[in-house]
Specification:
signal; OB fold (Dihydrolipoamide Acetyltransferase, E2P); Lipoprotein; alpha/beta; disordered N terminus; 5-stranded mixed barrel; 202 residues
C-alpha cells in the first residue's frame, strides 16, 4: 500500500515552536533576583501607583546591565493596588500580567516560575505567588482577560520596550512579583466602597 505524504504548513511548525517553554535569558539574573546586587534590594515595600512608576526616568537600553541593577528603582520593592486586566503564560515560563489604574494607565508585572528561580533571594515568595495566582485565576492554557482588583508587591525592573501587551511608557515592571492579594472587587470604586464599609463596621 502506497503511503501518502502530508505536508505540514510552516505556520503550524511555528505554532508548535512557540509552545516550547524554557527559562529566559535577557537580564535573567535580575528578573529572578539571582543577580550580583540582590542583597542590596531593600525588601520593605514602598506604596506606589501605576502612574507614579510610569513617570520614573528609564535607562536608554536596560539590557546593557545583565547581572546588575539600576539604582535606586531596581533596588526597591513596590506595592501597587490596581485592576488586573490580562494574564498569559510566556515562553520563558513567566506569567505576564497587565495592571491598569482608574485612568487606563497600564504596566506589566511578572510572576516568575519557581522552576526558573532556584537560588533567588525571594525564592519562597515567588513560589507562593505562583500558587496564589493559579488558585485564583485557574488554568492558563491561553491568554485570559480578567477584571480583578489586586494588591501586588514586587521588585522594580526596567525592561526593553518591544511591543509587550500593557507595557508602561518607560518599560518599568514589577519583576518578579513577591506578593499578591486578590480582592473581592472588580474596580477601584468597588474596592474603596468595600474598604470603607469594613472600616465603618469596625
Amino acid at each position: 500500500m502506497k503511503r501518502s505524504h502530508i505536508a505540514i504548513p510552516i505556520a503550524s511548525l511555528t505554532l508548535v515552536s512557540n509552545l516550547v517553554f524554557a527559562c529566559g535569558a535577557e537580564r535573567w539574573p535580575v528578573k529572578t533576583v539571582t543577580d550580583k546586587d540582590k542583597e542590596a534590594i531593600v525588601a520593605t515595600s514602598v506604596p506606589a501607583t501605576v502612574n507614579q512608576l510610569s513617570q520614573i526616568p528609564a535607562p536608554i537600553d536596560p539590557s546593557i546591565k545583565r547581572d546588575t541593577r539600576y539604582a535606586p528603582t531596581e533596588l526597591a520593592v513596590y506595592e501597587i493596588t490596581a485592576r488586573m486586566t490580562f494574564i498569559k503564560v510566556e515562553t520563558d515560563e513567566d506569567y505576564h500580567v497587565v495592571l491598569k489604574d482608574e485612568k487606563g494607565n497600564s504596566m506589566i508585572v511578572e510572576s516568575v516560575s519557581p522552576n526558573c528561580a532556584q537560588g533567588s533571594r525571594f525564592e519562597n515568595e515567588i513560589k507562593a505567588v505562583r500558587e496564589t495566582i493559579d488558585k485564583s485565576v485557574g488554568t492558563l492554557d491561553k491568554p485570559k482577560t480578567v477584571s480583578r482588583m489586586v494588591t501586588v508587591t514586587g521588585v522594580g525592573f526596567f525592561d526593553r520596550i518591544h511591543g509587550q501587551t500593557g507595557v508602561a511608557s518607560n518599560g518599568i515592571e514589577l519583576h518578579p512579583i513577591i506578593g499578591i492579594i486578590f480582592h473581592d472587587a472588580t474596580s477601584h470604586m468597588e474596592l474603596r466602597n468595600k474598604v470603607q464599609s469594613r472600616t465603618e463596621k469596625e
